[in-house]
Amino acid sequence: MGDDHLPEADLSLGGDLPTPLHARLASYDHYDLAVAALLIGLVALAFATYNSYAISNDEEVQQRYGELIVAYYASGFTDQALFHYVNLYLYGGLFDILAVVFQRLLPFVDPYSIRHILCALTGIAGIGASRATARLVAGPRAGAIAAFALAVCGPWYGSMFNHTKDIPFAAAMMGATYFLLRASLNLPYPLRRHVVPFGILLGCALGMRVLGLLLVGYAGLIILMYMQRLQLEPIRGRFGFFSQSVIALAPAFFIGYLIMIAVWPWSALAPFNALRGLVGFHEFQKQIGTLLNGHFYGMNDVPRWYVPIYLLIKLPLLILAGAGAALLFILWPGRAASPGDNRRLETALLAFIAVFPVICEVIDGGPTYTGLRHFLFVVPPFAALAGLASIGCWRESRRMAARWRRRRWPLSARCSCGMPRS
């Protein structure tokens, strides 16, 4: 047992008494305790209010899709109706499968209530993942700010009960990002306890939307970013770092692939079906209108700035200002360029994860509708950036205050710093 753990109490006759509860709580960081209270409160609120949410327009087809996947496996792969059901075969069915399983285990509960509770719980898990990521980079205070910022974010909390594809996907993406960052700290030999969860969450993301492939690119990017620290090494050493890192993360990709084909049967029919699914979304055509600036657009005719505009409109000012400040810290070397002087790389990676999909949408101009719904997966990284920026702003404000005091009272500062004590 490590030194940071509380010693076990000796309960034998004459031994020490067990540590009181208040003493145990005092040993934890108060920001962590605040986040724990927040998450417990959100779980209680979810169970208290899940019946207040109606069925969304996609839930019926997603529910049916989950039933068809279960029937496909139950029939020994002979019932192949799922491959001809609307365009749902382009999506993984992880959440829908789990919902159907729980519905059969709890037949006395309304099926859509189960879907809403499961979706809300995954949304709360996404808040926890955003907090964990910010905490990893900049400490408990940054994690707490990220958690509270995402919890009060309307597009996130307002979607947690109904968008049963987008919220679970976003939560899986954020959780995978956290474990990817954890694994990257030990490159080129990441710990197994970080690689395996990254692979599981990668598979969960791919098991709902093919955009989970972004995580593979993020893994390659973070390896290349860490290679920049080896500029003084010979090229053979840098190549060895890259190859060893890829080999070490390979089990995660294998785990992710197995989960994907298990919950997305269409992806298992051909080796490149996942990539075909990605192209298929770009060619998706449907008569769906969407509103922007008082005008109705077809989903294939929206302006290229549709998603950035909705981000600016929908996200709270706390998240927008924090994310903007984090970007400034990254681009302002020599100052509080990141929430921690040794964490600029991780902050830059999080900024890339938050911004890159949006930039791709602006450049590509693919079909988009219903505001931020299909881009909810960038909201948790934005919240994490807000937490990181809060620490950077706090440190920079303290530096500025110290400089102001030295300029305002130079004599007293010199005396207090330079005069010997009597």
Class by SSE composition: mainly alpha
Question: In DSSP terms, counting alpha (H) and pi (I) runs of 4 or more, how many helices?
Answer: 17
Largest sheet: 2 strands, antiparallel
Query: Strand fraction band?
Result: under 5%
Mean pLDDT: 83
Q: What percentage of residues falls in helices of 4 or more residues?
A: 55-70%
Question: Would you kindly provide a written description of the structure presented here, covering whatever features stand out?
Answer:
The protein has 17 helices and 2 strands. It is mainly alpha-helical and 422 residues long. It has one domain. Strands 1-2 form a two-stranded antiparallel ribbon. Helix 8 packs antiparallel against helix 9. The N terminus and C terminus are likely disordered.
In short:
This protein is mainly alpha-helical and 422 residues long.
List keywords for this structure.
422 residues, mainly alpha, two-stranded antiparallel ribbon, 17 helices, 2 strands, disordered N terminus, disordered C terminus
Please specify the SSE layout and strand pairing:
Blueprint: H1 21-26, H2 30-49, H3 59-74, H4 94-105, H5 111-138, H6 140-151, H7 154-157, H8 166-184, H9 192-206, H10 214-227, H11 235-263, H12 273-282, E1 289-292, E2 295-298, H13 306-314, H14 317-331, H15 344-364, H16 379-408, H17 410-418
Antiparallel strand pairs: 1-2
